Batch of 4 targets.
Target 1
Amino acid sequence: MARAPGEAGATPAARAESVGSRARARALLFASGVLFGLLAVLARVATRLGLTSGQVATVRFSVATVLMLGMFRAWPGTFRPYDRRLLAARGILGGLAALLYFIALSLVPAGQATLLNNTFPVVAVAISYFALGERPGWQLVLALLVTSAGVFLVLGGGGPGTPFGWGHVAAIASALFAGGAVTSIRALRAFHNAPTIFFAFSLGGLAVSAPFALGPWTMAPAAWLAALLGALVALAAQLLMTEAYGALTVAEAAVWQQLTPVASYLWAMSLLGERLSAVGAAGVLLGAAGVVYASIQGRRPPEAEEA
């Protein structure tokens, strides 16, 4: 199994620090997944109440951009861009992924949209293999397959007659762009801090979504409240995810992010009344089992991780 970055040939103290860093990263991704699940519900509520997908995305990225500019002003030197081309790629890819995801949320249930969007790990692991030279061990590949199987079980929980429409297509397209985006995060985290990377994402997302926000905007307070809360939740979730990618490989982080669709379904069931069938529940449990398995394998000592 592939070692975590910087672990090969490390001293016992450095290895212990690396294990601690990975444990912290897993905790950050867990919290990120819970928040991203809530974001899906808030975005769906906002579009139900009159805002378009482009407008919801524009609100999200406008709030993030303003807050990040305030952070950079308050703490000079926080914004440290080195590879501007890679930062731009992260912004555009992430912006397209987010916009398509919001489009999917406006057309299909929050749980289904999030599940399809979270097939991006398959793309991310493939890209990281060629772009970053990360070779996940068979344990993580198996865990990814198990969690992905759980995702599709939940998607098929509505029975064979469940229609497959443009919302599902948008969610899949979102996953393709997200795969490239998270791989760029992994590459950028080697020499960029999380706020700098997130700011690039915010600018890219704003540039991509603004053209789709033209036209009349609803003045319904509830729609704006959902959109603004979603923007703040997304800000926290994205920063946590970006920070976590500095200590985990794309493969392991991708497996942990399968918690997002589980959280999305739980939030949607609680707040929107969306239902989950017995088959879907089995899929949720299967996905959780994959995450637990990945965690156990990720905690194995370096001596036991030889490929």
Note: Residues 12-48 form the longest helix (37 residues).
Target 2
Amino acid sequence: MGLKTIRPLTPGQRGTILPDFSEITKDFPEKSLTIAKRSKAGRNNYGRITCRHKGGGQKRRIRIIDFKRDKFNVPATVKAIEYDPNRSANIALLYYADGEKRYIIAPVGLKVGDTVMSGPNAEIKIGNALKIKDIPPGVDIHNIELKPGKGAKLVRSAGQLAQIRSKEGDYAQIKLPSGEIRKVLVECMATIGQVGNLDHMNVKLGKAGRKRHLGIRPTVRGMAMNPVDHPNGGGEGRSKSGGGRQHLQSPWGHVKGQKTRKRKNITNRFIIERRKK
């Protein structure tokens, strides 16, 4: 998918770079594969805000994506490439030979009319899904499961890809987009290819209004608040120290920048090499 710039007739259009949606072939989703998405504006069941800076935005419906790819040895034809407002990648609508319809994440190079399949008999071809044990090392993959049959959890956003480094026993070593090398069970499913919509990272919204259309409300710096409202607030003029000498904190006093992963996490044994700094 390419990008487009807009003739700068207004200040909001001057820095705008938007996707041209040239790959999109269908404007409306398959209604049978969608469910309602209720907007809670970051509030929990008590009505209290637990996730700040959320609210408003365009109404959306959730597209039900097939992350398990568990319909084995049944060929499917790509009928459309669609936009999904809930994720950075585009999605592909599949019509299976037995009449069933499903959505999958659209990889680079998948076009309308192509045939894809999942299972041990599938070829090493863009869009096909196989168990990691059936995929040769060095092949680009995405949509990777962490537990067999649980559905893909890794490498699902626009432009991402992982590579199988090697296989040994029940595990394969996979290099993830972050640079981390991790062990994954060879019985887990993965999809061949790189996630599409490569230009997503180059999009510039250009104006505050587009951020509001996405349901994202304004963020006020803690340093600009009063001491009663935030730990970093107060001070005469601009004050890096806030009301008193202290580190950057959240509104509830949690120091920012610290690692949140548990040191003795049980999954540490699966990580061969940490992500690049």
Note: The first strand starts at residue 3 and ends at 5.
Target 3
Amino acid sequence: MLGSDLFTGYYGMERHQFEQMPVFPLMQAAIFRVFGVGVAQIRALPVACGLVLLAAVFAVGRQVGGDRVGAVAVILMVGLRVADSGNATGILLLDRARINRYDIAVPVFALLALWTFNRAERDRVASGTR
């Protein structure tokens, strides 16, 4: 058994071990199915996720504080250097988008969820429902 006894009886989790959610590998598999396997295909999804991340950062920044806040947030994502190490640039967006790992998809889904939540809350308040 791969699962932990800690979760025994909770929807069969004692029989499973999830180290990452399957969405990113499934999207990668779809790219391989359509375009074949190669370096460009491997890098296409992380780069696309990076672009979607920039759009999500702008959308949430705009939602919170207007166009100027959204633009500043995107500029910080692209240019802020937070670390200085080995082969990395220190710019989180570039360092995550250049390798084929699911790390780049996590903030995309998180920010899209935040954007959706904020929008639903704003619509609820505007309609006067509680």
Note: The chain is about 65% helix and 0% strand.
Target 4
Amino acid sequence: MLQQEKLVSLLNKVMNQSARLRKGYTQAMFNCPFCKVVKKVPKLEVCLEGVDFGNWHCWICNSCGTSLKSLFFKLRAPKQYCEELHAIIGTTYKEKFQTSKDTEAHILPNEFKPLGVNSNSYLFGHAWYYLNQRGITRNDVLRYNIGYCERGEYAKRIIVPSYDKEGNLNFFSARDFTEESFFKYMLSPWTKDIIGFEVFVDWNEPITLVEGSFDAIAVRKNVIPLFGTSMSFSLKLALVKNSVKRVNVLLDNDALKQAVDIFDRIEDIQNDKIDVHLIRLNDKDPSVLGFENVDNIIKSSRPLDFLDLIKYKMEL
């Protein structure tokens, strides 16, 4: 917390204004010095914590960067302020992580075997049995390049890859299909500042946000897995750049607080109105309900309004 307090104090001096703080000290909001548009709710967001640390973006003029150093450079901050910044953050964990993990080529585990290719292996049959129980078809396996591992770090796990808009691997999830592991899910050791299943996304159509890969496969239509319960910086930026008109937030009922947080964040960043629909499935899993039932629930939902938001927050 002390680091965030020092950063906010320094940013206030560099920006020559006082930050509006959100979620404690995790986000600082300013009126943008680049487009000079003054709003009741400031639109230049600076992230001060977590995997998005250092990311900054104006939701009006789209000025953005991925480090506080780049923000200070663009602002032509005095040398003394740049030196003060370095004294506070030094080389951040994010920068260290990016130089080691993110600069490496993203590849699937060496032990990865595609489930679209038949095998006589006992584990191959076991993996397929698990997928059938989840309602996943052969077409799904081929579409998403689903596979599994028999050995190695991801042994006895289903591997579901995610690809970016260019068709390059950007993430994967690994689900235990034997129910023997204490950890049901493992995720690739890369940044989650990505857009899941981006290769399949049509930004001109309503977007549905879900927690994981299997939820996304069950929903099928224009869906983005978050690989958790929070939006990445890249996803927030894409929603604005592509002028998305509707976002469906479909998280487990026990993640209601996170779903409301996502609604709040979309409300904060939008320039044009984005209709946000919070979809509740009454403790049913999307794969249990099936694509048609989930699709009908989404279609019949209505946008959240202020009273809905108050009601949901009272449930938290």
Note: The first helix runs from residue 2 to 15.
